[in-house]
Design goal:
Number of helices: 12
Structural class: alpha+beta
Radius of gyration: 26 Å
Largest sheet: 8 strands, mixed
Distance between the termini: 69 Å
Oligomer: single chain
Number of strands: 18
Length: 524
């Protein structure tokens, strides 16, 4: 029997320390390779650490809530084997994808430069067992449909049977729509592949018809898969409580939101409100005893340093523009009822994101980085990026995070919507990985979601521009000499004046505004 110690690894570029947030094992537990040992909080994200060893946990070397340096031994595991076999060299861990109504999976940046140091990591943790279910009788003529779905989805139906099950339940109340019938047929195909039975082959379709059918069914499956997973009673309970399911972290075995999740979420909201009455404390106590001290660490510590560095190194200049976004609101309304966007959350932020990408191509210097001392002699240079890693500032329970969408310029409107939704979901769940917050080009902060009209945001370090998107409200607006109600928003932009002069910042903001005023310009 040998006892091996697992050292805290570097799960991102340049990580020097991390806090052990929660242990998932205790002494005496038997673990296998890739079993999750604990959660750690780095300066950028919450990460699960999988075990590089198989054996029995003998000791937890670091208590929860303690911050330790990379390379520090955090757990001891005994291996019952002859000799000391070297552990498998693993890849950096991935956070599990929280599947909600809105999101497709975003690519992550898992290059060799991000491999962990100070100790090995293995894989991305254990995966849930495949769901087994009895075979169902299929309606006549559904063989070809089921086969087409199974092939075009490439395993999506099996991976998301919970979504199919929820859709089928809802569809039964509405006498089963055509889309739901197609998905149920796929589910039947999956089940009967385990229990084969003789059947008469269907007449093959023409290639063009098959392609058309595959595209239509693929869109249906995409809409179902990107829906929040929850059973009808849970959905009703959420409506009664006034809770948006997308805001709730799902803990169900298949990634679905459970009744317990809603109760926990509501209890947290109630607790926050209840604490307001007792916040000021007993006035009879000395004031020095009524001070709450909170250590600055993790995301808050990293954010504070970055904002100070940015504010005192980049000379900020801010400008504002009022925009008539009425046509954007009409466009968003049409997208919401479009079959192509079924099950995908669409908001004006999507159009703004497209507008920023479009405007940056017309004003390239806003998509740049100022680099000091490039030659070792104090020389500086401006690096203009011919790609857009679009950052979206996200307020999370753990602090401000700015994950970015890699190569956003290559995404279609639908793909960008899915990427935005995935980004927000992972950020709310604290599952954003360090690689997803590196290499940003330009940032959007959606302060309008909080009912704020505008602001002067601080530029994200390494960038030269940030756009604040204010709330969209109906206001009186003069149009063709008449005062009429229109949907108005205010954009606030902050720029690094070393790179972006007043003329350039004004032209960039005007271009962004022109898309919000007339989204059809994106078709040019």
């Amino acid at each position: 029997m040998t006892v091996k110690k697992f050292n805290l690894p570097d799960v991102g570029e340049g990580l020097t320390e991390a806090e052990v947030v929660a242990w998932k094992v205790k002494p005496g537990d038997v673990v296998a390779i890739n079993d999750v040992l604990c959660e750690i909080e780095t300066a950028k994200s919450l990460v699960e650490l999988p075990s590089p060893f198989a054996g029995t946990v003998t000791e937890l070397l670091v208590e929860e809530g303690i911050t330790v340096e990379v390379g520090t031994a955090i757990i001891a595991v005994s291996e019952e084997q002859d000799g000391d076999a070297a552990p498998v060299t693993p890849a950096a861990p991935e956070a599990p994808v929280v599947e909600t109504p809105l999101y497709g999976k975003l690519p992550t940046d898992d290059g060799d430069d991000n491999r962990p140091a100070g100790g090995p990591l293995v894989g991305s943790g254990p995966k849930a067992d495949a769901v087994k279910r009895r075979a169902r009788k299929r309606p006549a003529g559904s063989v070809v449909e089921a086969a087409t779905i199974a092939e075009s989805a490439e395993g999506t139906v099996q991976d998301h049977q919970a979504a199919v099950e929820a859709k089928a339940a809802e569809a039964s109340v509405a006498h089963r729509t055509t889309a739901a019938s197609a998905v149920v047929a796929a589910e039947s195909r999956t089940a009967e592949s385990r229990t084969p039975e003789p059947r008469t082959p269907a007449k093959p379709e023409a290639p063009q018809a098959a392609a058309s059918r595959g595209a239509a069914i693929g869109g249906t499956i995409s809409g179902l898969v990107n829906k929040v997973l929850a059973k009808p009673p849970v959905r009703k309970f959420a409506r009664d409580l006034g809770i948006d399911l997308a805001d709730v972290v799902a803990t169900g075995q298949r990634g679905e939101v459970t009744r317990e999740d809603l109760v926990s979420y509501q209890a947290q909201r109630d607790a926050e409100l209840d604490q307001a009455d007792s916040f000021w404390g007993a006035s009879k106590k000395p004031q020095d005893q009524r001070v709450e001290r909170m250590p600055v660490k993790g995301v808050r510590k990293a954010t504070a340093k970055a904002m100070v560095d940015s504010a005192f190194s980049a000379p900020h200049v801010s400008i504002f523009v009022d925009v008539d976004a009425s046509r954007t609101m009409e466009f968003v309304k049409r997208l919401k009822v479009s079959r192509d966007f079924e099950g995908i959350k669409v908001s004006p932020l999507l159009i703004l994101a497209k507008a920023v990408i479009w405007a940056a191509a017309r004003n390239p210097s806003v998509n740049a980085t100022w680099v000091d001392n490039v030659d070792g002699k104090g020389g500086a240079e401006i690096q203009v990026k011919h790609y857009m890693n679009l950052g979206i500032a996200a307020a999370t329970p753990r602090g401000l995070m700015v994950p970015n969408i890699k190569d956003a310029q290559d995404l279609s409107l639908k793909e960008l919507a899915l990427a935005l939704n995935e980004l927000a979901t992972k950020a709310r769940a604290g599952k954003t990985q360090p690689a997803e917050m590196q290499g940003g080009s330009l940032t959007i902060t959606n302060i309008g979601a909080l009912g704020i009209d505008t602001g002067t945001p601080i530029i994200n370090p390494g960038e030269v521009a940030i756009i604040a998107f204010g709330t969209i409200k109906q206001k009186p607006w003069v149009l063709d000499g008449e005062v009429i109600p229109r949907w108005i928003t205010t954009l606030g932009g902050s720029f690094d004046h070393r790179v972006v002069d007043g003329d350039l910042s004004a032209r960039f903001m005007a271009d962004v505004a022109s898309i919000l005023e007339e989204p059809a310009l994106l078709l040019d």
